[in-house]
DNA sequence: CAAAACCATGGAGTTGAGTCAACGGTTTTG
DNA sequence: CAAAACCGTTGACTCAACTCCATGGTTTTG
């Protein structure tokens, strides 16, 4: 599909999609027509974009993500310690989720306080 | 305590602390000595800073946080719908945590794949 | 087939969250 | 008491992640 459709279906702007592609997060093919230079994105780009959103919610930067995608499925044990890298990310994400859940809890408490009788004198 | 101590004990830079104070996230008193203009932070600032870190991990912006802190404990039902505001934040944070957990799961899977026998041919 | 809709590229601009540097005061310490 | 360590203010700067704009080519559509 072309960028306009991907934009509509993903909810991301064309600029964002091109930006992600420059950063190596998504990929396209040159497209069938030789007359133009339109990109052609595979259907699975939508899945990738959803995973990117997940990763961002978990606090990953785009640079981290590019590294993860590039290194991990490239199966290259040439000096790059994938296990250590993954373990570090896992620990980070777990810590972040724990913090977010603490915050969620305090939001719930604030909500309950608002719902309760406002003054007791 | 003065800013240097708060910085050491919180792990945040002095500049960050002053930045947070300008944004209204933490507060200080003018300090006892009239000869200087040093700020004096209460012990509880450390707790507040920890809560700020929680909130940031949950994806809250500093502006949102300032609004939350300012509006919520000010008990001002003058047009500001605290319940709706809180409900919206709660939904956001829950969605974010759900996404982060999906990502964590995929990290775990990637980790397991690395640990498993690399090739089976 | 012309107007509207779409696409690419390059580069500048924006926003949020800090960070740094310079300058001049104040405390602490050896 | 002087040097070192600390503090405040102002304003410029950085970095990540987008976002906008101008220009010019390509499809689609009424």
Automatic annotation (TrEMBL), chains A, B:
Keywords (A to Z) from UniProt: DNA-binding, Repressor, Transcription, Transcription regulation
Q: What protein name applies here?
A: MerR family transcriptional regulator
The residues forming a coiled coil are none
- Show the GO MF annotations: DNA binding; DNA-binding transcription factor activity
Q: Which InterPro entries does the UniProt entry name for this protein?
A: DNA-bd_dom_put_sf (IPR009061), MerR-type_HTH_dom (IPR000551), MerR_fam (IPR047057)
Please report the stretch or stretches of sequence annotated as the HTH merR-type domain. 1-71
Keyword Repressor included in the entry's annotation = yes
């Amino acid at each position: 599909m072309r960028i306009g459709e991907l934009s509509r279906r993903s909810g991301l702007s064309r600029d964002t999609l091109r930006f992600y592609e420059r950063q190596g997060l998504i990929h396209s093919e040159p497209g069938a027509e030789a007359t133009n230079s339109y990109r052609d994105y595979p259907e699975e780009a939508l899945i990738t974009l959803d995973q990117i959103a997940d990763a961002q919610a978990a606090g990953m930067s785009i640079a981290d993500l590019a590294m993860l995608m590039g290194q991990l499925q490239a199966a290259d044990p040439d000096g790059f310690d994938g296990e250590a890298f993954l373990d570090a990310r896992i620990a980070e994400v777990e810590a972040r989720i724990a913090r977010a859940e603490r915050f969620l809890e305090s939001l719930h408490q604030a909500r309950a306080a608002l719902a309760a009788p406002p003054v007791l004198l």
